[in-house]
Amino acid sequence: MTLKPIFTCIIYTLLIFATITLSIAQNVPLNQEALVNHLDQELSGEVPKRNLEYISRLHRMRGSDDYNEAIAFISGKLKDYNLEEIELIKIPTDGKTMYGTQKARPAWNVEFAQLWELEEKDGAWVKAIKIADWESIPMVVAQDSESGEASAELVDIGSGRSESDYENKEVKGKLVLTSSQPESVVPLAIEKYGAAGIISYAQNQVTAWWKEDENLIRWGHLDTFSETKTFAFMVSLKQARFFQERLAKGEKIRLHAKVVAAKTNGSYEILSAAIIGADANLGKEEIVYTCHLDHPRPGANDNASGCVAILEVARTLKRLIDDGLVARPKRTLRFIWSPEIEGTTALLNYRPEFATNTKFNIHMDMVGGGPETKAIFHVSRSPQSLPSFIRNIGAAFGEFLNESSDNYASGAPTQYPVVSSEGGKEPLHAVIGKFHMGSDFEVFTEGSYRIPSIYLHDWPDRYIHTNYDLPGNIDPTKLKRAAFIGAASGYYIANFGSADVESLIELIKKQVLQRTAQLMEYIRPLSKEEQENAKYYHWLYERDAFTSIKPYASINKIQEEQFISYLEGLKKTIGVGNRFESANKKSKIVYKRNDQLKGMMSVFGYSYFDDHYDKSKPMPQLMSYSGILGSGSDYTYEALNLVNGTNEVMDIRNVLSAEFGPVSLELVIEYLEALESIGVISK
């Protein structure tokens, strides 16, 4: 029998067993019938939607007046909802202070910004057509623009990132039109060739809808820490093409640009509130809900949705507790609103007790996209470097909601549709159990802290980071469902103990079966050696995820033996696997992390790696590598996570290959040596 039929038979068998076990378990997961009933009744989609409509009016850039107004609004709601330990934490930002691997970015505010096309009239240039106005659409000004003013001709420089883009073009004192993000053209356009300012029509993240809507204006960026002070306007693809058509005909286009903006010393304002745990000992342990509040206006799905969803979780659980419908949880539930990634990194370094007390994280970033956004909802897990039973809990409530919402939409009987009267009735169809990067949960799951997370998010979203990310695209039912998964998962974990172990183990068995079937499908095209490697680390992960229960509950000998026996049975079906080996002596090196330097290498708006790495050397190739299931940022993030004073370099390569797709040992060695050269890790 050939290898392909063997794989097909094994996968088919596993999928049959997975389907049978799931069909048996269509009831409420983890014996949480009462909790699910109360959440379905109390959670609202309309309440968070109204809160979102207010927040989306504000241009919530870090340290700005509008961001602070949004903080004040949420703080007021927390008081209305009777939350506890409401605290506004102000962390100083001056553009110099380091919080772990994050250099604190100063506050940025805009007072005025307009872009006009001029026309010659009676021998003078006068304003004729307003192209962009910050007061109307704040996103037209690239983040971290500085004050400036220019009346000048427009020159199209294409991408503007290579010398060839400037051949036979005079740009000194001119305004340049570029398809690139503004910060990437500053070295040539501004610093070398002396352009007066930048007009960018950079497009949104690449999805199936990329460049489809010519009216979108994308969020633009300039380098916060650049010594070159300049400004940039963002325009739509439609506007850029109109300019280009006219320039191609030889027409002269003269524009007037004015920006009044500045970066100043300020603070990361971070809001925290809690539902204090009832248990005298366990109450010190915290399950922390997070989101990021900062974003250009409107930023409805990204991320006003996550902000109001965790606010709705706080309101609902506190109401149920105050009304005596559910008991106060044993562990503390905490809620945090912060600037994305940089604020979270600063917080865990500035107030390390937050990291010490936090045992699990539930993060929401983009959880309200309706049909217009084309969004797909995800219930994602921590990376493979951080095995934890928490993934099974998030997956259980996500799968339950998938089934109940599908039954409801199909007209089948369902007790808990979890819909809002003003929202949609579509099934959720959440993607369960994958790992995605892209938001603050990365700070918690990173190797400095190793705090397991459930990450709820939409991807793709065709309006992300554009002026069309509007409240009208947000579905109240989606908000309610995201809040439901978050509330059910968090409350269950907050009360988790030895009495819950038996039902959790049964759930884990079913999900291990699903994951094993998915593994066999994933490794089919790989070499025999890589297949064996993936299987070896699959079983290692599942064993460690099971073991992660022990700090929170007692597992008796019979329960443990039965679970190990279950794994052994599956191993006999698909094979134990083998660890990939190499004769390269460097594969045996064991690195340890610099404990004094906490955080990721690339944080929002600042890269510790780029700032410290020798710029005369080529960048490590792993940073731009693309695997089957991951990009360079996935590989480099996880590579550092796996540096723990125990793993050999070979183990790091092997886990990366099992998780994201095969990668050469040499690329991993090169990246780890680069980290060693800047003092992040050592032998």
Question: What can you tell me about this protein's structure?
Answer:
This protein is an alpha/beta fold and 683 residues long. It folds into 4 domains: 3-23 and 499-574; 32-104 and 266-485, Zn peptidases (Aminopeptidase), CATH 3.40.630.10; 109-264, Glucose Oxidase, domain 1; 585-682, no CATH class. 39% of the residues lie in helices and 18% in strands. It has 19 helices and 21 strands. It has helices at 3-24, 33-42, 46-55, 65-80, 182-192, 237-248, 300-322, 342-350, 353-357, 390-410, 441-445, 476-495, 501-522, 528-547, 557-574, 608-612, 632-641, 649-660, 665-677, and strands spanning 84-93, 98-99, 102-103, 107-121, 124-133, 148-156, 175-178, 197-200, 232-234, 254-264, 266-275, 286-292, 332-338, 358-365, 377-380, 431-432, 453-458, 592-593, 602-603, 606-607, 681-682. The protein has an 8-stranded mixed β-sheet, with helices on both faces. Strand 15, helix 10 (390-410) and strand 16 (431-432) form a beta-alpha-beta unit. The protein is globular, with a radius of gyration of 26 Å. 52% of the residues are buried. The model is unreliable at 19-25 (pLDDT under 50).
Number of helices: 19
Q: How many β strands by DSSP?
A: 21
Inertia-based shape: globular
The total domain count is 4
Task: Tell me which CATH architecture of the largest domain applies here.
Answer: 3-Layer(aba) Sandwich
How is the biggest beta sheet arranged? 8 strands, mixed
CATH-assigned fold name of the largest domain: Aminopeptidase
Structural class by SSE content: alpha/beta
* Beta-strand residue percentage: 15-25%
Supply the CATH class of the largest domain: Alpha Beta
Using the CA coordinates, give the radius of gyration.
26 Å
Low-confidence blocks of residues: 19-25
Q: How many angstroms does the end-to-end distance come to?
A: 47 Å
Q: Percentage of helical residues? A: 25-40%
Question: CATH superfamily membership of the largest domain, which one?
Answer: Zn peptidases
Instruction: Identify the strand order in the major beta sheet.
Output: 1-11-13-12-14-17-15-16
Mean pLDDT: 95
